[in-house]
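Researcher: Let's do a round of design. I'm pasting the structure tokens now; please hold your answer until I've finished.
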């Protein structure tokens, strides 16, 4: 295995910090597959970072671990200085709902709900949330340019509009971190550029920390820096 590079020095304030993460899956009783090999990774507050790499390189697995959707075999994951790698599922769910927003390639909107109702969902799930669900959802849909689409269901929206709804939903509970897994992967080139610009604008306006997995060089070029995943090992650049 090549020498692991620790990406980004520890001098600045990190909102995401991954320490020596490994991920293994059992193939059978005697064999296992190692997906991540001792990954170290930091994202500083307010940064926008792209994780690039070939399919099967481990980048989506790492993003899932950062977001608390998966757990590492070993190592530590800190979000806002909290080690989430040792939390129970109920605690992890709270972190996902309050601290981390997710945007995926597929929009994952509830088809029977309107755009407004889809964005309201995360707020309604968190009984301790200070926001009024409908008021907050309208504010966010206006922020992503969809104030005229509040009552439309997903089938009545274009792909780009559906992704805008998904982004608004990801921001519903004012997360500190936005994670994106191929957020433009299901869009044409024009819609992709619009979503890219929207993410960059939201990052600046809201002070978000953004970490994106992508194959798209345009996304990587828009970010402050990029890291490359290859065979479960993370490299700078």
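Researcher: That's everything. Go ahead.
Model: Designed sequence:
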């Amino acid at each position: 295995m090549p020498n692991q590079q620790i990406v980004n020095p520890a001098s600045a304030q990190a909102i995401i910090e991954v320490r020596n993460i490994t991920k293994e899956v059992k193939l059978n009783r005697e064999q296992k597959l190692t997906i991540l090999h001792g990954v170290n990774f930091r994202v500083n507050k307010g940064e926008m970072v792209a994780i690039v790499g070939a399919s099967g390189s481990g980048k989506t697995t790492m993003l899932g671990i950062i977001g608390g959707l998966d757990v590492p075999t070993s190592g530590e994951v800190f979000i806002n200085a909290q080690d989430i790698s040792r939390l129970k599922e109920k605690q992890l769910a709270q972190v996902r709902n309050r601290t981390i927003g997710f945007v995926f390639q597929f929009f994952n909107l509830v088809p029977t709900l309107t755009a407004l109702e889809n964005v309201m969902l995360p707020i309604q799930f968190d009984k301790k949330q200070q926001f009024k669900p409908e008021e907050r959802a309208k504010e966010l849909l206006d922020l992503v340019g969809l104030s005229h689409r509040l009552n439309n269901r997903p089938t009545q929206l274009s792909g780009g509009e559906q992704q805008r709804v998904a982004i608004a939903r990801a921001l519903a509970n004012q997360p500190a971190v936005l994670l994106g897994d191929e957020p433009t992967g299901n869009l044409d080139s024009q819609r992709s550029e619009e979503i890219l610009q929207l993410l960059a604008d939201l990052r600046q306006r809201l002070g978000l920390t953004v970490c994106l997995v992508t194959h798209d060089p345009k996304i990587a070029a828009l970010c402050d820096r990029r890291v490359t995943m290859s065979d479960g090992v993370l490299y700078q650049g």
